[in-house]
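help with this.
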Amino acid sequence: MNTVFEIDEAIAILTATPGTLKAWLGGLPAIWTASSGDENDWRPFDVVGHLIHGERTDWISRARIVLEQGENRTFEPFDRLAQFEHSRGKTLEELLDEFEQLRSENLRLLSSWELGEEQFDLVGMHPALGPTTLRQLISTWAVHDLNHIKQIAASMAKRYDREVGPWKEYLSILR
């Protein structure tokens, strides 16, 4: 199979995300980062909580299922909103530290598996999407990070939606 997927490239993105978020969000005033409490309007705090939940219950858990049980076991459904409960009472700095620690542990585990090309084609069963390969799972993990980095930027940009005035025309993030 001819593909552009390279595990080292995916791991590079996955490794960079916690530091990127810490550098960007750490120390910012809460007005930029705090949760709105609205499950339909995720702010940076909510996104980091969501990434933590994924580290605990999604990516590595599903990869392990693919490697050990394949299509014989369907992945557990992922609660996309669990962060609203699990992050309650924590600070953003605590969440950023927790995310960094969990991601580091998960990437160490992933690397320890020393996966080969044949394993990336192993198939697992997603509860809504059906058959998915380990290659697709790991690719999605990396792109999921990028998706949420974009989401954080967009949610923060909305704060100055009106204040940018006529320049909004040039700011695609506000459209």
In short: The two ends are 39 Å apart (CA to CA). Residues 22 and 96 are 6 Å apart (CA to CA).
